[in-house]
Amino acid sequence: DIQMTQSPSTLSASVGDRVTITCRASQSINRWLAWYQQKPGKAPKLLIYKASSLESGVPSRFSGSGSGTEFTLTISSLQPDDFATYYCQQYNSYSEGFSFGPGTKVDIK
Amino acid sequence: QLQLQESGPGLVKPSETLSLTCTVSGGSISSTNYYWVWIRQPPGKGLEWIGSISYSGSTYYNPSLKSRVTISVDTSKNQFSLKLSSVTAADTAVFYCARRPVGSGMDVWGQGTTVTVSS
């Protein structure tokens, strides 16, 4: 199985801050990585796919980068609506399963 | 606008089989460009990919659940289904169905349904 890790697990930030979340894979997943935002009691929302492609309708303050085993999600200027938990997910190989990272909770400083 | 809706029992007894259905509306499940996915989230925990199916019925399962999972599609009803056998309390979770375009992440999700495993 491909193991996904995220850091930090919790991040305290203020409105306007630049925020970066890191996701690492236990083996190369090329660029087959997605990022999701989840708010309490709600289904996740797709933000980024194929490591850096912005999903339609997602604000441009969200961006993704990386390839191979290390990836980042950046929020250029944190907005009140962005306080949530963020998950990465690899979708490199069906035989390995499409595993998620453990999540990063972004809360108010 | 495509919508997905999960349905099924909210309470399942230990050792029994959990069965859920996802009804797709506002679009066809038969499109060749999409996979149809089940994901779960135990209370207070993270997301777990259970498996997915293509319109043609090709299935892909989480290796850790493969022995207990069956995903099927009914194109006549525009639905796909999940069966998880021999459930235990550890299978208690919110279950989501979702659509995944080829090459992308899961872009449309159902609202989720809570399943509790308890006698």
Structure description:
The complex is a heterodimer of chains A (109) and B (119). Chain A contains no helices and 10 strands. With 109 residues, chain A is an all-beta fold. Chain A has a 6-stranded mixed sheet with strand order 2-10-9-4-5-6, with no helix packed on it. Chain A has a 4-stranded antiparallel sheet with strand order 1-3-8-7, with no helix packed on it. In chain A, strand 7 and strand 8 (70-75) form a beta hairpin. The mean pLDDT of chain A is 96. Chain B has 119 residues and is mainly beta. Chain B has no helices and 11 strands. In chain B, strands 2, 4, 5, 6, 9, 10 and 11 form a 7-stranded mixed sheet that branches. Chain B is globular, with a radius of gyration of 13 Å. The mean pLDDT of chain B is 96. The chains are: A mainly beta (109), B mainly beta (119). The interface between A and B is medium-sized, with 27 and 22 residues.
Helical coverage of chain B, percent range: under 10%
The quaternary structure here is heterodimer
Specify Rg of chain B, calculated over alpha carbons: 13 Å
Binned strand content of chain A: over 45%
Please give a handful of descriptors for the protein shown.
heterodimer; A: 109 residues; mainly beta; 6-stranded mixed sheet; 4-stranded antiparallel sheet; B: 119 residues; 7-stranded mixed sheet; globular
What is the element layout, followed by pairings?
The complex is a heterodimer of chains A (109) and B (119).
Chain A: E1 4-7, E2 10-13, E3 19-25, E4 33-38, E5 45-49, E6 53-54, E7 62-67, E8 70-75, E9 85-90, E10 104-108
Parallel strand pairs in A: 2-10
Antiparallel strand pairs in A: 1-3, 3-8, 4-5, 4-9, 5-6, 7-8, 9-10
Chain B: E1 3-7, E2 11-12, E3 18-25, E4 34-41, E5 48-54, E6 59-61, E7 69-74, E8 79-84, E9 93-101, E10 108-109, E11 113-117
Parallel strand pairs in B: 2-11
Antiparallel strand pairs in B: 1-3, 3-8, 4-5, 4-9, 5-6, 7-8, 9-10, 9-11
